Amino acid sequence: MRTKIVAGNWKMNKNLEETEALLAELAAKLPDTRAEVVVAPTFVNLSTAVNHLENSIIQVAAQNMHFAEDGAFTGEISADMLLNIGVETVILGHSERRSLFGEDDELLSKKVKTALVKDMKIIFCFGEELEDRKSENHFAVVESQLKNALFGLNKADWKQIVLAYEPVWAIGTGETASPEQAQEMHAFIRKTIAAAFDAKIADEVTILYGGSVKPNNAKEIFSKPDVDGGLIGGASLKCNDFMEIVKAI
Fold first, then answer.
1. In whole angstroms, what is the distance from residue 85 CA to residue 228 CA?
2. What torsion do the CA atoms of 166, 170, 174, 176 make, to the nearest 10 degrees?
3. In this predicted model, what pLDDT tens digit does every residue of 117-149 receive, in sequence order?
4. What is the 3-state secondary structure (H, E, C) of 46-108?
5. Which of the four pLDDT bands, split at 50, 70 and 90, describes residue 85?
6. Rounded to 5 degrees, what are φ and ψ at 79?
7. Which of 136, 137, 210, 217 lies most in the core, judged by the most C-beta atoms within 10 Å?
8. How far apart are CA 116 and CA 42, in angstroms?
């Protein structure tokens, strides 16, 4: 059975005091759930998050990392730095990293390989722009993103990979892919992985949906057979909303 995951990407939000308050509230209100629950605060608050959640099942992820072990990379964070403070999961390839900071498939492939060498879990994001969807090129774009960054991996590496399909046109816009659109793409992703590797890997990999998931649509989206949870943005910044999404899994 595939692992169910609800992950909250906090992006560049919450100062130290706000982070501590939200973590305490999340830990206190977390319902019984079969899902893994993950939060990804900003870099400067990761250590605080790890300490605050020491006695909670909520896991902590980083929003990004560099592919190099060390060196003259001002402002960057290495895998070893994350591991040193107890962070073992990293989000890579988020659409904002791609569009705002120019991260391409080649760079992301390097980051993935470094994270795997360091035995980290990876939440790998990908998805099409609105123009791709309108031109019916969305399947080709997704296939290319997967192929370029992940298809050079060994079969064993997939045990550390979680996929997060995020249609870029549905992130922070209030728009959401319909449950049927989400299912269609998630099924396509599994088919693509099965063709490149094998059916077992395709069936076992967790695929999350990311794109304006809210309490009022989470249950229907999560009910689809190939959707294994969500990578949540804005709704993860409000405890009650995030907990309602966790309950929907």
1. 28
2. -80
3. 999 999 999 999 888 888 989 999 999 999 999
4. HHHHHHHCCCCCCEEEECCCCCCCCCCCCCCCCHHHHHHCCCCEEEECCHHHHHHHCCCHHHH
5. very high
6. -60, -40
7. 210
8. 22
* 7-32 pLDDT tens trace: 999 999 999 999 999 999 999 999 99
* Phi and psi angles of residue 13, each rounded to the nearest 5 degrees, phi first: -135, 155
Distance CA 65, CA 62 (A): 7
CA 109 – CA 104 distance, rounded (Å): 9
Per-residue model confidence (pLDDT) at position 134: 85
Which residues, in sequence order, are CB contacts of 83 under 8 Å at separation 6+? 118, 120
Are the beta carbons of 77 and 118 closer than 8 angstroms?
no
Other CB atoms within 10 A of residue 224 CB: 17
> CA-to-CA distance for 215 and 221, rounded, in angstroms?
11
Instruction: Give the span between the Cα atoms of 184 and 162, in whole angstroms.
Output: 18
Output phi, psi for 108, to 5 deg.
Answer: -65, -35
pTM > 0.85: yes
94 catalytic? Reply is yes
The residue whose two tokens read 């309490």 is 215
Q: What angle do CA 218, 57, 119 make, to 5 degrees?
A: 95
- Is 20 part of the annotated catalytic residue set? no
Specify the residue for token string 């709704």.
235
Spatial distance between the Cα atoms of 7 and 246, rounded to a whole number of angstroms? 9
Which is catalytic among the residues 94, 128, 138, 143? 94
Q: Of 103, 128, 166, 186, which residue is the catalytic one? A: 166
Residue with tokens 């229907």: 220
